[in-house]
Q: What sequence folds into this?
């Protein structure tokens, strides 16, 4: 195995740059990260919603540009999210929630500018570490995974879905149920093997299955809006002006920041690459780690710069390494990654280890676009910070009608048919109902995207093993992966009982 | 409108039952109208049947402990349950319905105005003037992106007379 083969890395960088630096891809990277920054800064609109918003547009783009743009929104969001955390004490993204603790304190002490500058620098360095890890590890993992057969893929998907729906979930059973339900929704339409139509309920429009657009827009766009709109009482947000002069860090800030940035990059890169635990967990871990190693832990929560840069570095590193399992194994660790996989599949590309060798322009082009995107974010952030700060003052009651217009028109233009709009409404109401019942909707989309692949791989591996389920456990790699899945289930069972006992005791 | 709050345990019973019902539907549908096949040669009905079975099982696991607490009258957890936001629910759903009904009859641009007008009722913070301005801006943006940018053949205006 050519581990750390610098010549091939150099070649790949060349291939990738040639793709990423084309005028159209530069433009899409720019649109993606700017939009990501924009929606990240706005509290209440997350990466998922804005990726769903732009989803219909990606049909008319080539797959490379589509992925570059959607990925840009995703990592752009983790830059923008810190702005409202620091200035308003309102996290723009879940992964920047922990930044509120010390970030908002810094703003109260009049040091918002410094916090914003240092998070931008930390974010950029964290993302860079993540991209380097992505560039070095992906070819190695892909070379290993190329020998996988259907049994290993099935096992990987089981573990991936299990991890993504349960580990960081409030109610793991409910997350699991939603994944299974999502896989069920994925079986609707024409069966790939026999050409038989399943569960179409008499709608010829469903012969191709539910559209990913209608589902993501309904589940995340519509039900999110219904849940977020609060009637009565006009709320206005005031954001202070940030001057460039106020952003200059002191020598003390610099001295305190470099080690947290390094540690945050490491923690974020490792945590982000594991399916199921993403940028939010990475930022939490980085914060608690800094607090533990600090000589003055009492400063945390009172405007410690370490508590701002460490989580912000970690979540950006994690945002980049999340692409490792997604692009090399085809197993998304989160719903945003599932959307990326969904876009690839709509364009007829199956993500997996063959992607690296068979479409190097796509694979390396997307990775190199991350460098470009992060550079653009660095430039957008420092001189233009005043502009982003002013965005925070756009109230939600102006945003949500605009979101609704965009999602409805987006669903309609897919086939110029109102059927898609009714589907959006159906999934919106269903998503809202599940939300009320305390079920997370994100795992459903994850299951929906992976479901058809899972069925195909299960069917094929069962055929090869002549119907013997035990054979799945006897192959070394699939056996190990399924063993991990079983261990995870056991751990969840024990953990669930323990928390329940703790709850009854108190 | 009256606040509609549900006990946490009751909520889990309802959620579990809903899942069980969906799972039962899948199993019944798959076994009635699709072939199951064998494990070594799976037919279209096999996978949905397995999924339906899993859903029924998970539904029971969620509903049963909550149901037991309800029956025994044990105090349910104190965590607050999300309330139904009736006004946003009706206004948002209504605006989507209005768009779907209008778009094939009068075209995309008038439908955007109708959608905006209905959806601002969800919180009632944006007045009629603001709504009009927002609708005009959104209509212009949509025409720019989809008609001029992507050159899609969508009916911008349809004159019914």
A:
């Amino acid at each position: 195995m050519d581990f750390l083969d610098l010549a091939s890395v150099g070649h790949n960088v060349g291939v990738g740059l040639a793709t990423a630096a084309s005028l159209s891809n530069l433009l899409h990277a720019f649109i993606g990260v700017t939009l990501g920054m924009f929606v990240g800064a706005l509290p209440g609109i997350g990466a998922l919603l804005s990726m769903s918003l732009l989803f219909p547009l990606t049909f008319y783009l080539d797959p490379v540009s589509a992925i570059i743009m959607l990925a840009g929104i995703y990592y752009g969001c983790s830059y923008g999210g810190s702005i409202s955390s620091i200035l308003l004490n309102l996290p723009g993204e879940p992964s920047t929630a922990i930044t509120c603790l010390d970030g908002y304190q810094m703003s109260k002490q009049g040091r918002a500018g410094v916090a914003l500058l240092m998070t931008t620098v930390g974010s950029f360095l964290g993302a860079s570490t993540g991209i380097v890890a992505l560039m070095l590890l992906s070819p190695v993992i892909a070379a290993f995974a190329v020998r996988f057969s259907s049994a290993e893929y099935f096992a990987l998907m089981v573990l991936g879905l299990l991890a993504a729906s349960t580990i960081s979930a409030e109610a793991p059973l409910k997350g699991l149920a939603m994944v299974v339900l999502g896989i069920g929704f994925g079986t609707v339409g024409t069966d790939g093997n026999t050409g038989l139509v399943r569960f179409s309920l008499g709608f010829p429009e469903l012969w191709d299955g539910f559209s990913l657009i209608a589902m993501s827009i309904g589940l995340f766009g519509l039900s999110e809006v219904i849940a977020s709109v609060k009637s009565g009482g006009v709320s206005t947000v005031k954001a202070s002006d940030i001057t460039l002069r106020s952003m200059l860090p002191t020598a003390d800030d610099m001295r305190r920041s470099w080690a947290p940035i390094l540690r945050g990059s490491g923690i974020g890169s490792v945590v982000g690459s594991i399916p199921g635990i993403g940028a939010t967990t990475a930022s939490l871990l980085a914060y608690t780690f800094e607090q533990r190693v600090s000589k003055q832990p009492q400063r945390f929560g009172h405007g410690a710069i370490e508590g701002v840069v460490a989580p912000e570095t970690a979540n950006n590193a994690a945002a980049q390494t999340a692409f490792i399992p997604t692009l090399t194994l085809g197993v998304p660790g989160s719903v945003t990654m599932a959307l990326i996989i969904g876009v690839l599949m709509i364009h007829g590309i199956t993500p997996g280890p063959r992607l690296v060798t068979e479409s190097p322009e796509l694979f390396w082009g997307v990775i190199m676009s991350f460098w470009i995107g992060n550079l653009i974010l660095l430039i957008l952030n420092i001189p233009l910070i005043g502009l982003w700060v002013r965005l925070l003052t756009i109230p939600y009651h102006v945003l949500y009608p605009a979101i609704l217009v965009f999602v409805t028109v987006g669903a309609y233009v897919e086939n110029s048919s109102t059927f898609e709009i009714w589907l959006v409404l159906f999934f919106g109401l269903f998503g809202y109902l599940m939300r009320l019942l305390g079920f997370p909707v994100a795992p459903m989309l994850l299951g929906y995207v992976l479901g058809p692949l899972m069925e195909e791989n299960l069917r094929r591996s069962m055929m090869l093993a002549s119907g013997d389920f035990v054979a799945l456990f006897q192959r070394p790699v699939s056996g190990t992966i399924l063993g991990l899945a079983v261990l995870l289930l056991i751990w969840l069972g024990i953990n669930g009982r323990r928390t329940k006992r703790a709850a009854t005791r108190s | 409108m009256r606040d509609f709050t549900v006990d946490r345990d009751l909520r889990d019973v309802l959620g579990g039952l809903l899942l069980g019902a969906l799972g039962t539907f899948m199993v019944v549908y798959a076994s009635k109208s699709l072939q199951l096949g064998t494990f070594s040669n799976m037919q279209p009905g096999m996978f949905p049947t397995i999924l339906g079975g899993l859903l029924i099982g998970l539904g029971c696991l969620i509903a049963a402990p909550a149901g037991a607490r309800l029956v025994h009258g044990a105090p349910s957890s104190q965590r607050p349950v999300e309330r139904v936001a009736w006004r946003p629910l009706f206004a948002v759903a209504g605006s989507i319905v209005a768009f779907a009904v209008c778009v094939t009859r009068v075209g995309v641009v008038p439908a955007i105005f109708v959608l905006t007008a209905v959806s601002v009722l969800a919180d009632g913070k944006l007045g009629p003037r603001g709504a009009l301005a927002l609708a005009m801006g959104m209509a212009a943006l949509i025409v720019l992106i989809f008609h001029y940018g992507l050159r899609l053949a969508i009916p911008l205006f349809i004159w019914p007379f």
